[in-house]
Amino acid sequence: MLKYKSRWYVKAFIKIDRFFASSQICSACGHKEGKKALAIRKWDCPQCGIHHDRDINAAINILNEGLKRAAASKT
Ligand SMILES: [Zn+2]
Question: What is the DSSP code (8-state) at residue 7?
Fold first, then answer.
C-alpha cells in the first residue's frame, strides 16, 4: 500500500528491511553499539558521548539509510 501510494505521488520508495540495525548504531558518529534489550530506552554512545533516545536515534538512522540508498540508486 505504501509502495503503491508513493508511486502514485511519484516519490521514491525505499524499503528498509526490518533487520536493519537501526537501534544499534549511533546516528551521530556511526558507532555500532550492538544489540540492546528493548527495555533500554535511552543510552549514551561510548564513542562520541552523545545521549540518545532509542526511538529517535533509530528513526534518524532509518532516514539516513534511506537517503544513502536513494543517492546510491541515482548514480
Ligand atoms: Zn556516537
Answer: H
Domain hosting 38: range is 22-74
Number of domains in the chain: 1
Task: Write out the E strands in 11-57.
Answer: 42-44, 51-53
35 CA distance to ligand 1 centroid (A)? 15
pLDDT confidence bin for 32, thresholds 50/70/90? very high
- pLDDT at residue 53, rounded to an integer: 96
Ion ligand 1 contact residues with beta carbon within 5 A: 26, 28-29, 31, 45, 47-48
Task: Please return the burial class of 59, using the count of CB atoms within 10 Å of its CB with bins 0-12, 13-18 and 19+.
Answer: middle
